[in-house]
Amino acid sequence: xxxxxxxxxxxxxxxxxxxxxxxxxxxxxxxxxxxxxxxxxxxxxxxxxxxxxxxxxxxxxxxxxxxxxxxxxxxxxxxxxxxxxxxxxxxxxxxxxxxxxxxxxxxxxxxxxxxxxxxxxxxxxxxxxxxxxxxxxxxxxxxxxxxxxxxxxxxxxxxxxxxxxxxxxxxxxxxxxxxxxxxxxxxxxxxx
Length: 192
Prior knowledge:
Elements: H1 3-29, H2 31-34, H3 45-51, E1 59-60, E2 66-67, E3 102-106, E4 111-112, E5 115-118, E6 123-130, E7 136-140, E8 149-152, E9 157-163, E10 169-175, E11 186-191
Parallel strand pairs: 3-6, 5-11
Antiparallel strand pairs: 1-2, 3-4, 6-9, 7-8, 7-10, 10-11
């Protein structure tokens, strides 16, 4: 190859180098590309932290997915309080609840209200307030929701955020304290 041909190819290689460098910089700054990595979450850390409003409560991604950790979606069918399960809040006040939270009260004999409606797959924040002198444990009867549980002491309010089931229907829940279910402390979540 003559020296002249090498000089003619130099601008071509410079252009290829500039384009390659620009592509690398673009891909490095593009969140969608980076988040495809196995080590990265499709949910930005900022949105995860912004959604964390209640102490100890699971966060919700921008995509409406309830998270068990910074990177992993919560599993409603996990064991309650396991690392994969939606997290129950610490004791809270009514003013700590998001506007769209569903608040149930219990007096030891019933849930008030004893039914509520949610949308298929939507994130749901369910809160329970004890109005009596005993503790309560709200649990769903369906195994697909066994991780969704709220346990509280007398006078406390706690909440849990979870994704509603993807299957429409009625999902019964009850208080799991001895004798409470038999006394009528039961209810129904209607998924539409």
